[in-house]
Design brief:
6 copies of one chain form a homohexamer.
Chain A (H helix, E strand, L loop, with lengths): L1 E6 L4 H14 L5 E6 L3 E2 L5 H18 L5 E4 L7 H7 L4 E3 H9 L6 E5 L4 H11 L6 E6 L10 H4 L1 H15 L3 E4 L7 H4 L8 E3 H15 L17 E2 L3 H9 L3
Parallel strand pairs in A: 1-2, 1-4, 4-5, 6-7, 6-8, 8-9
Helix pairs in contact in A: 1-9, 2-10, 4-9
Chain lengths: 249, 249, 249, 249, 249, 249
């Protein structure tokens, strides 16, 4: 099985973290590739940056998806995920959606630990849009400058663990989600150090993508996740235009 | 006062409908300009098409917003609206948001009349995301091929009116929203022919944009609609990059 | 265009504040009149006081609405608003509904700043009844005696500003609504002093009333905002009885 | 124990139905009095009529409550109920609230059978305002002219029973509430004829009022159901002014 | 009238508290019997303990219900209640459901005072499952070891009262529910000492059970509270098997 | 890896279906065992039957869980699942929870196809309790006698497929869940015959159980899924008592 993970941001150091955790998590025989956005920002905290990241993700998906069994949008917040689900011929998931899929099997109230104050509002909108608002105990986030996006989990491990502990003690969290590709692998490092189960987006996405391939549930030919109806278009990059057509194949 | 209306689609015929209704609706002294997306699809029905439209809207806003007092995303579904609200230095609204602002002042239960079956799921997600789910009586839509996107309201006026009547009779609609820029002006044509108030997105957006300019509520310097924090970026079109910086001015 | 603003309370000093802000906010050519309740309390904080204010509002509307293009219930909490919408032949709005219509175009999470602790429960019920509960970040209120209802914004300006700042910092407010006719004009005074947009009920109601007149959406002849069905009545004041009949004209 | 039931409408024939069912339902030793509004409409179907009925109810409560152990607002929709709860020194309930208290002890999904099409929107708002929206299976209503408000249950018994049967079969109703004082006693007549439990507002209100008296839960001296704070008033009928003061005794 | 109260736990001391408060609360002529679970735990705090308590309750109901007019599950959390409603030929209620029925007639926002930190999550699930989530102001609980389950209200009366006061002051509680059979009678002891109405589960359940018997609403022969359809079974205790059949009589 | 699947019902024929589908779905190297309840009913349709099934499941888990890496409650409705999560030292899931975890990765609106009319209310309660109510498009069910519980999918394959097609066409289902262990394997048989993805509970549960084992998220030592606090108990079967203690190890 071959999985394509798309980093919607320009951060090669984060792509390296994603690849490492994905390879540690994958079942034997699963091959992982990670591609990094050639255009965009270092990491997404806002709706506008997510708009950019979604477009970059769509372009990368259009260029690279051929030959893969499933695709993962490898940023918490899942920019472009539901759009890609309409046009890709294979299963697609994202870090938020997959982390929630794991978390809701482990406890009822879920807290999300995030890397910046600003990122919280966007995360909340995505989680509520997925219908998980009633299960969200809290989002807690670092409140300090991030010197290096690829080095957050090393530089701030103690602070991140302390945020998780406060989520358990003060917010009633029964499961912790460590949110954001820059934290890929941190759940593994913290194993046994928190009093509730801890979930990571990358490993969840890899495992759930494998499951979706294995279950062979079939494609949507009807409803809002079927391919968009044919209509005139112009001026689109070839990779985007290809997806508009590919969905209908 | 100068308003910029952005058609996120490539349809010049729809831009003409938007301009005509906007000019009919604007207060004396308001100048209206409409720009049309150079890249994209004929009309947006799906999340993937909205992803494209949002990116095109952002580019157009970056290129053209200077000198305008407010900006309107002139497609129902408001692709890119909340993202632009973070980065534009002036008020911004969209057809869905503005139509709901009018409709909720006229009745409690709101029905939306749409141009295609497929478009309904996307509309519903947007309306629920705005928190108006509990006031949505129904969405009803045409179920026939659309020969010409600019000619829908002429070709299907009777069918659209019949959908509105069914929304009143069967769904308990107390207000009708005629959804989509291709229907701009239809509420005016139907005046007095439906038993409940009827709202149009373009005229609502123009009027509410004028109100936001007049009220001078101030900009967001804090919270999720403040400008995105500064961070590295690369490879972005100049118009997009400018917005990333402009928001922080 | 002529607008009738009804102060449901007996406070002439508040009527003067309403008139001043309404005149500052109205478009050129709009004439404003404010009438004050001859019976009632100084200001409404509770459901029982709102019951009284709603009845006074209905009487005033019955006596005075002729010749006006729209009517505004000029108290936050909108006593009698949805009832009047059934019987008046012209658009009608209120300070809460109109402030929410402005606020939801400016940000997602809305905080309301109020003049007394007791008033908060009633405000919350009204806002939730309008379906805006999911967008309400908080209500914060003064907790001190109000020597003069017409002088609150002068006497407590700093405290009110501090409440708004706490709503932004602690509750995540993205828009502030300064609630209550006694605060009419305060948003204007605070311009540029708060880090998020600030909305005022009176100016919002005047502007949205103008918009509803301009849009000409048509009247409800069907559904729950059509005129009440004819039936026997007795003992009603002439102004109330007139409204029962007027709605059916 | 003495209970005061207030008919907010001018219909003596309905007051007679209320009295008869209340007396059949009351525990031994409970005395029942019913007072009828001197001003108002024949029956309430709309928000505007409810505004009138609430004011009439408040006046009657102010005039008559002395010497009673509890008060019942004897119209479905409970006009004025939550307002009176602030000012009366004894427990107060209403037909809707009490019927829901019975119904939610008998099944999860509740359907309401009503006397007119128009009345449904108002009922739904009240029930949702009480927080019972998620348990409401449906509201179904007669769709024919009502010749005599006091004679509805005789004239339309078969149609009302058929509506209840459809609510069970098509809407999944697990409990039926026969709504409206004009239907007082009908649940008793239909005993054994419907396949799910059937609840009546008047008998429920009488029984629950007795329970509230017996439980002696104590009065609200704090929060939104304590008496309104003292403040200037003018022009109020003596009975209304007395309640403003009485609550603070 | 004869009422059967089932203590799902093995605590005879709590059964004694239940019996005493039930007898003080019952109307003249009502006979009360309390049975205690022969198997189970001292008191239920968790879902697993509730699973055990529900099974014990079902067995006790099967063995003892004959000859009673109504049955009460006498533990807050109501283990087995909705299951028993399907199979018992008489009305059945529980402490949580009945306390909520009382509380929602006394105020809008309800706080629950509980005997242990751990018990809160289970209580919240039950209350939300009943559809009362929107009316729950808070759950507050003791955070100390419970030496004797039958002696909690004596040992911790001051702490429990302090929790109620904090619920009023900090959470906006308008009604207090003292939760759990071990607190049976405490509301009576605290009469007049709290600034909002106080409700007790046992007295509420006794009174509401009497009301359900008096109202004679009829049994469910259709829908999800009718008796389970006949089907093969094996290995069941006689008392459980009897209920499977009894419901269909 | 070793998985224990518990059939809470007495139906050996269904256990055989469960085993076959589980073995087809499991990853290489996963060993599957299925145990069948010695006491209970043929299949669970109601809350009372679920109460029995939950107790049987707990007993089987207590007797058999040692040596397994994860446990699956192999009935749709997941009787006993959240209770077992408190006491088992390994991950546990159930058919409903796991099917929803798969389905929400495939589309937004989910419809459930069930084997009997009566079973729908129970399913709906469970799904809403998990917080998935907003994503449930519909539940549709067979309405005919079930001659043999193990033979349903053979006898009624066409009717079940037709229900799924109606859920897509009339209810807007974007994913279909074939509900109930008696339908184990049907999704596989219907592969490619429905226009939207189709999900099966048994294969989902097996795959997600494997994922939970692989992710090693850690156990709950705090919060509502930690082991129940120690307290007196009596009269419990050894297998149940063992679980009370085992959770605290």
């Amino acid at each position: 099985m071959r999985l394509l993970l798309i980093n919607p941001n320009i951060s090669d150091s984060v792509s390296a973290l994603i690849l490492a955790e994905a390879q540690r998590s994958a079942a034997p025989g699963t091959e992982i590739d990670v591609v990094t956005a050639p255009l965009g920002v270092a990491y997404i905290e806002t709706r506008f940056e997510a708009l950019i990241g979604a477009y970059a993700t769509a372009q990368l998906a259009g260029e690279h998806h051929a030959g893969y069994d499933a695709v993962v949008v490898a940023a918490f917040g899942d920019p472009g995920l539901t759009a890609l689900r309409e046009v890709l011929p294979v299963p697609v998931t994202g870090l938020t959606e997959a982390a929630l899929a794991s978390a809701h099997l482990l406890g009822h109230r879920i807290s999300v630990i995030a890397i910046s104050q600003r990122i919280q509002a966007w995360y909340r909108e995505i989680i509520e849009g997925y219908g998980f608002g009633s299960r969200l105990a809290s989002i807690r986030a670092l409140d300090r400058p991030l010197a290096s996006i690829g080095g957050i989990q090393d530089a701030h491990a103690a602070a991140l663990k302390a945020l998780a502990e406060r989520a358990v003690d003060e917010d009633g969290a029964e499961v912790i989600v460590l949110a954001g590709a820059p934290l890929a692998g941190l759940a593994r490092s913290l194993h046994g150090q928190l009093p509730v189960p801890v979930v990571d987006g990358v490993s969840s996405a890899v495992r759930h993508a494998e499951t979706l391939v294995a279950l062979q549930p079939g494609r949507a030919l009807h409803g809002s996740f079927a391919a968009p109806p044919a209509k005139p278009h112009q001026g689109l990059p070839a990779a985007i235009a290809r997806l508009l057509h590919a969905g209908r194949r």
